Amino acid sequence: MRPLPVIAILGAGPGLGLAIARTFGRHGYRVALLSRNPAKLEPLVTELATGGIISAAFRADARDRRSVASALAAVEQRLGAIDVLEFSPADRRLLLPSATALTHENIRVWIDLYVHGAVAAVNHVLPDMLARRSGTILFTTSAASIHPAPRFGAGGAAMAWLRNWAHGLHAAVAPRGVQVGHVAIGAFRPGAISDAVAPLYWELHTHRHEIEKVFLLDVAAWLPEQPQSSTMAAATRGVR
């Protein structure tokens, strides 16, 4: 009998990460929760267990490539092959320099988090996925990856790189059985809408012709050039 599939959530926390864990767990997935402080994830492991979901916490710092690789190797050793990788790191301590205030240093920290961290994670799981001709890689960014905003100069640029790569990677590996998807969230408190956003990840995992989901809260804040009467909108972009 094939063991239960595994999702690894890199950047897990009590908001979106937990909601994604519940969503996949209800479909029979075991869950690996990865963050800089795995001790803070133990309450989530306990909470998931009350719903019959098997999970475990691991230490991984998305800014440290060796940390990412060793954490994912630990996941595989404990739970088995990773069927789904979800990448959603966050660090609220990082400054948000505007488009007119960029320096080498304040750009580098965002690139390390979103670019190098994602590349390290994908480089670890992708070869096995391609060998099995199955697997899913899901990236999370803010809506600034799609709708540039001056106040998100460094972060938005790094996330835009990740989004661009997601599209290119999807085109390269989809014919070989591996799905790549991207979720862009336009909300200033993403954790508050986690339960509404989490199903989008399952949809990208199962609707493999799609690559992107966009969830906007307070639309006017993200699209000031396109005033709308609704305060919430969800959009989907598909690749066929």
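Next protein, fold it too.
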Amino acid sequence: MKGDVFCTFFEDISFERFYKTEKLLFDRLVPFCKENNLKLNIVSAIKKNESEELEYFKKLTNGFQFNFIMHESFATGYESVDTYEYIIAIHSTLAYESLGRGKKVILFDARGAICGIPFDTFGWPMSLPPKGKFWTNEINDTEFQRLIEFLTTASNDDWDPEIKKELMQYNYLNPMLKELLS
């Protein structure tokens, strides 16, 4: 990625440190895909940076072939994730929205821990534990194996209650919203 420093109001964070999360994840994901003969599909995050992103992911995958999905329209990300059974993400509104739409998603939301941003955790501003059935705020071999196993072996009957229990609250007839608006 271009530039030397990503600046936050906490401290200056180098691009190397900011993107360490991707490196840690891809150091585990690429061998997993190789061992299991899986195709890796990467959805571009930002249209204006797609050529940089593609080069960055080529370096991260170290010659492993992957499909890089570029934006063709506003809906490209949604259309793409809807075609896959499993979704692995770091920190992404598309991943969060995919959970809400019933997709099997695991999240390695470790950037906050790596960059020293205390509120950059999975589910923030909710106060969730650092590890759940389908997320973690750290990336290591144990956490990777734990989440991959849940992603690939949990039935829909196991999966749906976990998401609803942790993130989604059914609010019949929206009384909470009505109270807020009154």
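About the second fold: The CA atoms of residues 73 and 79 lie 10 Å apart.
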